[in-house]
Every structure is written in C-alpha cells, then in structure tokens.
Amino acid sequence: MPWIILFAAGLLEIVWAFSMKQSAGFSRLTPTLITLVAMGASFGLLAIAMRTLPLGAAYTIWTGIGAVGAFFVGVLVLGESASALRILALILIVAGLVLMKLSSEG
Q1: Angstrom distance (rounded) from CA 89 to CA 81
Q2: Rounded Cα distance, 6 and 11, in Å
Q3: Residue 37 neighbours by CB under 8 Å, 6+ apart
Q4: Per residue in 73-100, is it b (16+ CB within 10 Å) or e — as a string?
Q5: CB 45 within 8 A of CB 3
Q6: Which residues cross the membrane (predicted)?
Q7: I need a labelling partner for 85 at 20 to 30 A (CA). Which of 30, 68, 70, 103 fits?
Q8: SS (H, E, C) the chain
Q9: How far apart are CA 25 and CA 43, in angstroms?
C-alpha cells in the first residue's frame, strides 16, 4: 500500500508542476489554487508513504515520477522539445527509479 500512496503523491506532483506553469508566476487564481491543493495533497501522501518506506527510496521515486511526468506533459501538452539528449536524460532517470525500487525494502 505505501508504494501506491507514493505513486499517487508522484502523480499529484505532476499536477502541481503543470498548474504552477499555468499560473504564470501565481498571477492566475485557478491554476494557483490547483497548485496549492495538489502540492499539499502530494506532500501529505508522501509523508504517509514515508512512515514505512525508506527515506532515500521514497523521496527519489516521488521526485522521479514528477520529473518524468513533467517531461511528458511538457512535450505532449506544452509542445516542448523531445530532443535525443532530453530523451536520454529521461531514460537515465527511469533507470535510476527502477534501481532505487529494486534496492528498497518494503
């Protein structure tokens, strides 16, 4: 169950990162509110998952889900570049996440 909670926290990190971009520096109300709510929920779920998961694994995987998800949202929704170098970086992040999960207890 803690891994599912951690995954949900990571998904919410993607939501708040995207809505923060949409808030234009917190100058637009609705995206700003979405950012704050998603951020609070993401941190809350991360804290719950960290009750039983190792700190290094939980934090690394949480940020990794956010980074990978933000990359995909940036490319697919915002039209950002998907250059070979950025894709290689994404592959390395995913490899690190897999290794961290495989090396973790819980």
Answers
A1: 13
A2: 9
A3: none
A4: bbeeeeeeeeeeeeeeebeebeeebeeb
A5: no
A6: 33-50, 57-78, 84-102
A7: 103
A8: CHHHHHHHHHHHHHHHHHHHHHCCCCCCHHHHHHHHHHHHHHHHHHHHHCCCCCHHHHHHHHHHHHHHHHHHHHHHCCCCCCCHHHHHHHHHHHHHHHHHHHCCCC
A9: 21
Structure tokens given for 53: 């998961």
The length of the chain, given as a count of residues? 106
Q: Which two tokens stand for residue 64?
A: 């990794």
Q: Are 106 and 52 in contact (CB under 8 A)?
A: yes
Q: pLDDT per position in the chain (106 positions), as tens? A: 999 999 999 999 999 999 999 999 999 999 999 999 999 999 999 999 999 999 988 999 999 999 999 999 999 999 999 999 999 999 999 998 888 888 876 5
